[in-house]
Amino acid sequence: VIEPRIIPRDQVTGALVRPRATDPRRTCRATIDLDGRTYRCGRETRSTDRLHDGIHDAYAEHGDGGAVRW
Ligand SMILES: [Zn+2]
């Protein structure tokens, strides 16, 4: 079980900042459900295996100022 990690947006700095995918075909397909809402990861994947390193990032907040990352 992967627990969601809600990180305050102002703490998402430095190495935590990852580029968001600009090509839908390269966008990660992982999703997470939080309190009845579904978030989709927006990170860019490698063209070779369609995966990315590190954690998923929805580039969204969950109503409490937290960044939805898991
Ligand atoms: Zn992802």
The overall average pLDDT, rounded, is 82
Low-confidence stretches: none
Category from helices, strands and their pairing:
mainly beta
The biggest beta sheet reads:
3 strands, antiparallel
Q: Could you tell me how far the N terminus lies from the C terminus, measured between alpha carbons in angstroms?
A: 11 Å
Write the layout of secondary structure elements.
Elements: E1 5-8, E2 31-34, E3 37-40, E4 57-61, E5 66-69
Antiparallel strand pairs: 1-5, 2-3, 4-5
Bound molecules: zinc ion.
Structure explained in plain terms:
The chain is mainly beta. Helices cover 0% and strands 30% of the residues. The protein is built from no helices and five strands. It has strands spanning 5-8, 31-34, 37-40, 57-61, 66-69. The chain is globular, with a radius of gyration of 12 Å. The protein starts with a strand and ends with a strand. Bound molecules: zinc ion. Residues 28, 30, 41, 43, 52, 56 line the site of zinc ion (ZN). Zinc ion binds next to loops.
